[in-house]
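Example 3.2
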Amino acid sequence: MSDAEVTAAAAAELLGEAARELSRWGLTDLADDLRRAARRRGDDPAVVLVVGPPRSGKSSLVDALLGVRLLAGDPVVPTAVPVVVGWGARPSARFVPADGTSQVGPRPVLPRVPPDAVATAAGAPPAGVASVEVELPRALLAAGLVLVDTPGSGGGIAGPRAAAVLRAAADADAVVYAVDPARELGEQDVGLLRAVVDLCPEVVVVLTKTDAYREWRRIQALDSLHLGEAGLPVQVLATSAPLRVHGLATADDDALRASGFPQLADHLRRRVLGTRAAARDRQAARLVQHALRHLLAEARTRREALAGPGDPTLVARWRAAREEAERLRTRSARWQQTLADQVAELAAQADADLTARLVDVRHESARRLESGDPTAGWREFEPWLYERTNDELLGHATHVRALADRVVADVAALFDAQVVELSRTLDLAVSAQPVSSALLRAPAARRGERADLGLHAVRGVSLGASLGVALAHGATLLAGAAISGPLLPVTAGVAAVLVGGRMLRSAREAQRRARRTEAQRAVTAYLDEVEVAARRATRDTVRRVQQEVRDHFTDVAGEMVRSADRSLRAVERAVRGARTERAGELRRLDDDLRRLRPLVAAADGLLAATAGATVAGT
């Protein structure tokens, strides 16, 4: 058994033992939290997104990695919708409708998946299909990986699918960027990878089709050089699907190793599954610490009351503590007021940041359009506009996350300070790592919310349609002006020619101005649409930050209220109880404390072990 497996087994056992202790004491809420954490450990696979330019071998890479012929059925028809491949006891596939409100649910493709079935479905899916879901009994999938084969995404961050790639990358645990070694990574590839690295914790570049290119090693070295110069910590691996297929068919270990797929599979297990497992184990240890802190506090309180029931102030002290804990979860609490004030400031700063960024894009667009003719320069201007817009929106999303992280940290610090004050009475034994900051994962950094980037790197209708009308109109008028020249009467002489030339130049200049005006109108409409969507996404994120922070600390305060109330009742019973009853209860409490202390020590040890594993996996 590997070290990671030993740690995972220890975490599972610790969660179970702690949940049983909490249930024995009647702390059902905390016990349920631990049981839910234990269930999530097996139901939370790591998502690996396979992206890259069209016909870069993404589908063949997924097939070869799993050792099946499943996706790469047609070399001409590319993947049209994402194909999600996860573990299942029997092979199956189904269409997922694009309408998220559909009550029918995913529609079966076939009860079993023969070769090319999914490739055909993905290459030409029925109308209204958003994706294809596939289940296969494969060891790599059983280990906890889900592979997502995506449609081609050429053009870098200015490409038509850049927004979809970045949204998916923000919700993935790893991204595999597939590219064939016919060329080295260009500026568009590096630009897209730079954005992906900012959104996803693990990114790897995989060269495909190395069997078809003799110079692939030189390309691999150049790609590594380009990524290093760009400051991107991305490894470049090389693979050959035909070698993998040959090795599997002939049991040729040399061919399998030369294919590069064992190295890729090991990379995904170690860097993705290993790091994810360590994070889950660490979270389990934190949950156990949090739960046992409440349990130990109650046990010590009861023991104190039983050992010295003559203290007349004990009951009054715990009544005051319960009232203070109750105030901590009300809307008038200091941390609640601070949260409301800082979220309002966060919304204002985010709004101002987005306005400033898009104003810059508008001004730069106007200068570019003014300096040339849109007819001649639009082919270069359009991708520049998409890339420039997405760059600013990514920068805006990063800025909002940083602001939100600061709000979370400030509110957590204030809440923890109030907890420390209350703990002097409640005997919560607050550690150097307060309960709130240990358990709260900043909402702005959650993968599901990082996807709300408001990106619009698509050929928008408002942009393309209105500009197309302008250019067509201008071309028609120019054609008419050009035809009118030769029809001037010959007898008019040179003066007529000069007048006609001035008229032609004047007409052309007027049409250029008209095209610039129409192009600027189209750009303005596009950026207005982008701004509306981006503001909506930012406001949704800010609202969720406030809601999750408020709910988290309200729940923590509520647990403190319940703990104080249970301790108060225990103190009152101890004061009223007979001496013989107190002696028996003291023996039971001592037994409980002897069981609890090793659990706390085990949680401490698990935290230390998972911290080391997390560092090793990065």
